Structures are given as C-alpha cells and as structure tokens.
Amino acid sequence: MAGRIALPPMSEERNSAVLPLGVVSRLLDTIEEPLMVAERSGNLLLVNTRARQCLGFHGNAEIQGLNLFNDILQVDSKKIFGELERGQHEVNLNIEGGEKKSAARIQWMPEPDWLVVEIESKSEAHAGPDPATQLTVQELLQEREITYRNLLAAYLKLQEVNRQKTVFLASAAHELKTPLAVIKGYYDLLLAGSLGRLTDKQRDILEESKDSCERLVRLISMFLNYSALESGKLVLQLRENDLRDCLDELSKRWSEAFQRKGVKLDASFDPSIPAFRFDYQKVQQVAANLLDNALKHTPAGGSVALRAAPHFWERRVASMAPAEERRRFRLPRPNSVEVSVTDSGPGIAAEHHQEIFEDFVRVDRNTSGMGLGLAIAKRLIQAHRGKIWVESESRAGSKFTFLLPMDQG
Ligand code: ADP
Q1: Does 6 or 200 have the greater pLDDT score?
Q2: Which member of 132, 164, 261, 403 has the lowest number of beta carbons within 10 Å of its beta carbon?
C-alpha cells in the first residue's frame, strides 16, 4: 500500500534518512486514498487530506487530541488488537459517525507499533438510494405519466369534436350550394330577357342581387375549401402548366366585377415564365382570393395590378452565406415565379401583417368575409413549398406577393 511505503523506515542503519513528520504528512496528502496513522494508544499521528474530507473534519486543529478508537472508530482498542494478534492480517470496521457512512481497513505495523487505517467512503451510489426518496420519485413519475395520458386523451377528444364540427358545417354549407345555384340560374334567365323585357330599374336590382348571390357562393366555396384543408384532404394535382394561362383566365373572369365597381384591373405577365409543375386550380384559387380582397378594399376610381415574373429565390441558408459566396453560387436561371397583387386601397397597418394569414382573422369589419381567404392562400402556397407575404402601410395600398418554386417534385 502506498501509505505504508511513505512511512519512515525505522531500521538503525537508515535512521539518518528518517523523514520529519511534517514531510511525511505532506507526502500522505498527495495520496488519493484516505489514510490515518495512529500509535497503539490510539493517539493520531497523521490524517491525510482525503481522510479529513471523508470524516468531515475541516482542518488539522479539529483532529488534534482525538483518539482513533474512542473518537473515530468508536471501538474498544482491545477488540482490534485481539484480532490482529490472533494473526489476522487486517481488521475491517464500519464507521458510523458523521453524515457519510464509511468503512475502515486497519493494519498493524509491528516495527514502529503503529496502526495504519485506510478509509473507504461508502458513496451514495454504493449505499443505494434512500427508499423514502426513491418512492417519491417513482410516485412523481407515475403521476406525470397519468397526467400526460389524461391530457393526450382530452386532446384527442377535442380534436375529434372539432373534426365533427367542421364536417357538420361543411355538409350544411354544401347543402346551401344547390339552392344558390338554382337562384343564380334564374337571375341569368331574367337578365337575358328570356322571361320578358326588364325596365332599367329592374335590371339594376337584379344585377345587384346576382352579385350578392355570387358573393354568397364564393363564401361558401371558401368555407368548403377550408374544411377540406382542415380535414387533411389537401392533395395537390401537380402537372406541367402555363401560369400565364392560369392567371389570364382568372383576370378575364374578374374583369366584369372590376368594371362594375369602377376599379381598373391591370394584368401583365412576363412572357419568359416557362411551363412548370403546379396545381392549376389551387394557384388560381390563391390569386382569386387576393384579387377578391383587392377589389373589396379598393374604392371606386382606384386600381389593382396583377403581375407575374420569373424570380431568383435564394432560400435562407443561401442568404446567410457571405456575399461573395452567394455571388459565386448564383443560380444559373430563375428557380421560381413571383406573383403579386397590388392595390391602391387603404393598406394594412404593420401590426396586422402576420395575423391576417391566420384562420378567421379579420381586421376590416366593414367588408363581408370570414377571415379565411388569406389563411387558405397561405396553406395552398406552403403546400407548393412557396411563401406568401404582404407589404403595406396604412393608407398607402397593399401588395400581396407569393413565390412558387418551379422545381415541384
Ligand atoms: P376576409 O377577406 O374574409 O376578411 P382574408 O383572410 O381574405 O379574410 O383577409 C383577412 C383580413 O385582411 C381582412 O379582414 C382585411 O382586414 C385584411 N385584408 C386582406 N386583404 C386586404 C387588402 N387588399 N387591403 C386591405 N386589407 C386587406
């Protein structure tokens, strides 16, 4: 054992080499094992730093005058020496005193008649966990598990109730579509003069009623689209399509409504947009929702511009790279198309720019709507791995833009 090697040799011829006790003490302090050396009487000669830590002593002063048997081991010295003299190499004992439990291995050095005590601290890991604490931790874990299960069950139930509500509303909305189609059909018949000549006054009233009927149909369609998206029925029909055809068809469909309100619609599409894969109906629906909003919010005499052009879309990872690197990796050709709808309406305050894309959020309460048009548009664009945003200032018009990547899988 290292402790005993460090002890001063007591033989005559090497007596001159006996080390002073202070030096031996410092040597013992360098040893990792907790060690004590005591005389036969129990008078402590040396206690190294590790042993002092194990026994809970803070300095040398605290151990001065202590007796190994009475104060530390709390055992009768006769018991120890009895066992050692019977030829036993060492005696093992538990030290109960102090906060930490430890065990002592006692060996006898006959030549100087010293006892060398090695202390083994029984760490918490060895001693095993306190059963009281163990129980509490187990109970807490069980409680957490039960709470988690209850929360999950409640969440699933809520989701199911929510789904049933959406399904119910969707079927009710669907039922409304048929009578509305019939009403709209009769408006068309009347306006065409098939059921007799109309006075100018009658024509105006019928046209206004037809507009309202069409708005109702759009609202219902909007809700049906939303409920379809909500119940996870969004499946993109990705085909190679011409975006200019898609938007041109739309602007023609809307031109009459713009004319009626006295708002100028200016549609222009960059001829270099190539054909690429996208869902024709869904992208048309997004642009329709934006045009619908622009028309709704732009007063008579105002203007709305629908634009589409190829775009270099550097996704965030690329934009975080240093400027020269970005230039080095410059895309060879546009990888997306940018579509925008700009109006000269009242604009939207900056604090609403994010929330207007959320479900059922409406800022302007003076117009009709359900607060779903932009939420649907956002979902459809994100399904295409694109993005949509608004730039606007109060009283300065709005510009809604969406990007469609051209590399749809
Ligand atoms: P809805 O039009 O049914 O209210 P949307 O989701 O389409 O729902 O729009 C949410 C809100 O965003 C609207 O209530 C309106 O306040 C605002 N908004 C949308 N487009 C415009 C626009 N072009 N100009 C001004 N406000 C707009």
Answers
A1: 200
A2: 132
What is the reported pLDDT for 14? 39
379 pocket-lining for ligand 1 (C-beta < 6 Å): no
pTM of the predicted model as reported, rounded to 2 decimal places: 0.58
Cα separation values, 124 from 33, 144, 180, Å: 18, 26, 78
Ligand 1 atom with minimal separation from the 361 CA: 10
The DSSP code for 139 is H
Residue indicated by tokens 């055809």: 245
Find the mean pLDDT for residues 115-126. 70
Q: Write out the H or E segment, with its range, that includes residue 264.
A: strand 264-269
Q: Is 356 in the pocket of ligand 1 (CB under 6 A)?
A: yes
Which atom of ligand 1 is the closest one to the Cα of 372?
Answer: 6
State how far the Cα of 192 lies from the Cα of 246, in Å rounded to an integer: 29
Per-chain mean pLDDT for the chain: 83
Round to whole Å and give the CA distance between 208 and 20.
Answer: 114
Amino acid at 110: P
Query: What is the maximal distance between C-alpha atoms in the chain?
Result: 142
- Asked if residue 127 has pLDDT above 60, the reply is no
Give the integer Cα–Cα distance in Å for 273 and 114.
Answer: 98
pLDDT (0 to 100) of residue 191: 93
- With pLDDT > 90 as the criterion, what percentage of the chain qualifies? 38
Please say whether the beta carbons of 91 and 98 come within 8 A.
no
Q: Note the pLDDT of residue 120.
A: 81
DSSP 8-state secondary structure symbol assigned to residue 306:
E
**Whole-angstrom distance, CA of residue 323 vs CA of residue 359:** 38
Probe target for ligand 1 pocket from 258, 303, 306, 356, with the most ligand atoms within 8 Å of CB: 356
Mean pLDDT confidence for 62-91:
82
Q: What is the pLDDT of residue 132?
A: 64
Contact 304, 298 (CB under 8 A): yes
Q: How far is the CA of 390 from the centre of ligand 1 (A)?
A: 11
* 255-309 pLDDT per residue, tens: 989 998 999 999 999 999 999 999 999 999 999 999 999 999 999 999 999 999 9
Residue ID of nearest Cα to ligand 1 atom 26:
348
53 C-alpha to ligand 1 centroid (Å): 72
Transcribe 339-392 into DSSP letters.
EEEEE-S----GGGTTGGGSTT--S-TTS---S-HHHHHHHHHHHTT-EEEEEE
